[in-house]
Amino acid sequence: MNDVWKKNALGKIEAIFRDHFLDDNLHISEATSPADIDEWDSLAHIGLLATVETAFAVHFSADDMAEIDSVSSLLAALDRRVNG
Amino acid sequence: MQVDAQVVLRLAMTAAREGRAEEALSQLRSIASPGATFAQQNQCARLARAIAPRLERLPTLRVAFLAGSTIDPLVDLLGLWLLLAGFRLEAYNAPFNSWRQQALDPESGLYAFRPDIVWFFLTARDLRFHDSAVAVVDGEAESSAHLRDLIGAVEQVSARLHGHVFVNNAEATSTRPLGNLEGRLLQTQAGQVSRYNATLTQALPPSCNLFDLAHQAACFGLSRWEDARLWFHSKHPFSLEAFGPVAFAAARLLAAGAGRSRKCVVLDLDGTIWGGVVGDDGPANLRLGASGGAIGEAFVAFQTYLKALSSRGVALAVCSKNDDALAREPFGLRSEMVLTLDDFAVFTANWGNKADNIRSIAATMNIGTDAIVFVDDNPAERALVRAELPEVAVVDLPDDPSDFVAALAAGAWFETLALSDEDRLRSRAYRNNAARTLAMGDSSDIGTYLRGLDMHATWGTADSTRLPRMSQLLNKTNQFQLTEKRYSQAELETMASDPRFWVSWFSLRDRFGDHGLISVVIVRMGPETPCIDAWAMSCRVFSRGMEDLVFAVLCREISRRGYASLLGRYVPSPKNGVVSALYERLGGEPDRASADARWHFDLGKPRQTANIFISEVPRDNAATPADTPTTN
Known about the structure:
The structure holds 2 protein chains of 2 kinds. Chain A is built from 4 helices and no strands. By secondary structure, chain A is mainly α. In chain A, helix 1 crosses helix 2 (about 40-55). Chain B has 3 domains: about 60-255, SGNH hydrolase (Rossmann fold), CATH 3.40.50; about 265-410, Rossmann fold, CATH 3.40.50.1000; about 445-615, Gcn5-related N-acetyltransferase (GNAT) (Aminopeptidase, 3-Layer(aba) Sandwich), CATH 3.40.630. In chain B, strands 11, 12, 13, 14, 15, 16, 17, 18 and 19 form a 9-stranded mixed beta sheet that branches. At the A-B interface, helix 1, helix 2 and helix 3 of A face helix 1, helix 3, helix 4 and helix 11 of B.
């Protein structure tokens, strides 16, 4: 995974999370998982994925969705879809 | 969403957290839109959750969802749209696909939750109507078995609970194995769903309500509605984006069930119901009908829609910046006009401020400004009214008159759970009411005016034909509402056949017309002192002594049953201040010992009766048409 791309992607993802939870104090890193954010439940998860899809102009497959359960797995799926 | 909306959301969130709930709510109202994306509506829902607990005196609606799919997004967004409709949502979402057990088991979470509303949120997706390996069904389809299950469950719930029950019909699918032929053959999957929906409307008990999910799916567009990936992944019944419109429509319906639908459309004239400006162009040159081109046809279509609204009880009023005589001319001179002067409860054409005029229209019709939808093609007028009267719903009219009908319809302002004859005559009733108000202006004193009204009142105890209207009155009335008890039709029916309750209705007519059923009183009797459990009266008949007549009849009837005294209670609400001192005025002794506001009436003492200008028309309560024995 290209470092520059990853840094950019993380920035976009952080903005998405901050919008979703209406909390500008949230910090998102590669290590972030639902355990770190109280309100990141299955309902929030679906909404976040949908917003990420729109922001990155990608479409996750059903398999992708099953695999994504943290920021690092999200980055991996995005890398696959965006960078091929 | 524009950047400024994101800013407003954060400001509002801060306001909510700091306890400035009303401010946050008004900011939320300014950005929430049913057409916004799911992400945006979700943000608004999060904000709504932060605001709701901090608002005082917000009525709560307890809604239980019995679903066969994952509908958490619906619950969240319904919380948003119900808050904007004036309610706090308390939700119970039954465990996944447990609706049959929940309905049948009297110890289930459903009944323990004590819901006001039970919603069987089933969809064709989770009922698997389009999930068959067989394209053409021989014999009974699975959908008939499902319908039997569903009606059974609905009947159980209706028997045990007294709130509103909602049931979805089934949406269509875009992927039909037999393609176009499924539109015609009943034995196909699509044909069976059509039959299911048709049978459902007949089989559903009259006190239960249909939620037209099929219509929501059609409006949204089936291809966008369907989300196979989301169904396989997490059993959501349709796409995330569809949850917003469904939640919006549901909130309007639930609010209507609780009495909060709008009552009147206030219309501008120039550029709103006809093309052109009558003061400049003259009536002959206004664009109306085919001679006015596409625009002319569009205005006729809009008038036709408005007339249809009026035919089902939505009042229409005019508020135009014009000379009054000129504004009226097109109604007589142009044959293409669909609306007539008779269609309007109030016709206001002057050069005054529209906000003032709207207040005056509301006062003349005796409705709140929060019952009004304002339609005006001029953005400046719309902005003025929005700023001065935030409780008025202002339609964001698009530029093209072709889209006016859609813009007005999109607000779903006039939802109702039932249609009564009273509704259909309501527009005339508002017109007559306005005439009375104006006649009052002509009388030299109130006594002359009241005597001149030539009023006659009739009353009776509850019968099956009057129950829907009685429940509607109890639920819709907010001002003359003594105890805030809102009973459903089913509950009224139970009380009416219970000898411990006196459930009565009153109707009134006068020289100008028949007001119909305008008051409901329920007295709870028993070994102790009888208590007035509920008393609501339509604001249409305020200030004419009707409440004195009702009370006199009430006292007489309770006394006839052997009781020596009576209690009246007042439960304050934001809108019922007008009756806070009613029992005092009627001669009650305040009960200082009790925590809530109560008055005691001694039925033995001769009552000082106010001057009542209403004649009571005797009615034989023992026989209703159905009871009349047929003898020779």
